[in-house]
Amino acid sequence: MLNKIDLVNDQEIAHVESRIKSINGFAPIFHTQNSIIDPKELINIGAFDLEKTLEMDPEFLDTDAEHEHDDRVTSTSMKFEGELNVNKLERYIGKLMREYGEKLFRYKGVLAVKGIDEKYVFQGVHML
Fold this sequence. Notes:
- With about 130 residues, the chain is an alpha+beta fold.
- It has helices at about 10-25, 50-55, 85-100, and strands at about 105-110, 120-125.
- The chain has two domains: about 5-55, no CATH class; about 70-128, CobW-like, C-terminal domain (Hypothetical Protein Yjia, Chain: A,domain 2).
- About 30% of the residues lie in helices and about 10% in strands.
- The longest helix has 15 residues, at about 85-100.
């Protein structure tokens, strides 16, 4: 789904479609606004086809093969013992979003927060 097409011009849509096709030339592209799409468009479309995947990437099943990623995309992770202070956690996440929100593609975490029995789960995707 290529969403929010109402916010960009045709040239920008064509550029994004070109990038998508460079990654997966077989991927169907559905133009949407407000993520509105007929569910029938997404169900049983055979989105994963091993033969097509192997045609695009002959080493797909080779677990020892190197994978190529966009070098502009990096990842980081943190692991630590103990529980977090909920107020400090909320301030940290707020600051992270204000300062780096436009650069974050995907983020998620499962945290232990002091005074809360359940795990604190946060996740999100890129924002405009």
